[in-house]
Amino acid sequence: MSSRSEGRSGLSTSEDHADDTQDQAAFRAEAREFLRSSLPPRRDANPWALNFTADQGEARAHFESGRVWQRLLFDNGFAGLTYPREYGGRGGDAWHERIFREELAHVEAPATFISATIAMLGPTLMRHGTDEQRDEYLPRLLSGDDAWCQLFSEPGAGSDLAGLACRADRDGDHFLVNGQKVWNSAAQFCDRGMLLVRTDPDVPKHHGITFLLVDMDSPGVEVRPLVQATGSAHFNEVFLADVSVPVSRVLGQINEGWAPARTVMSNESAFIGGASSGANTNEKLVMLARAFGALDDPNIRQDLARHYTRERLLAIMGEQILAAVRQRKAPPIDPSILKLFVAENRVLSGNLAMAMAGAAGLVTIDDRSAWIQAELVGRYGISIGGGTNEVQRNNLAERALGLPREPSVDRDIAWRELRRS
Question: Which is catalytic among the residues 268, 311, 319, 375?
Answer without folding.
Answer: 268
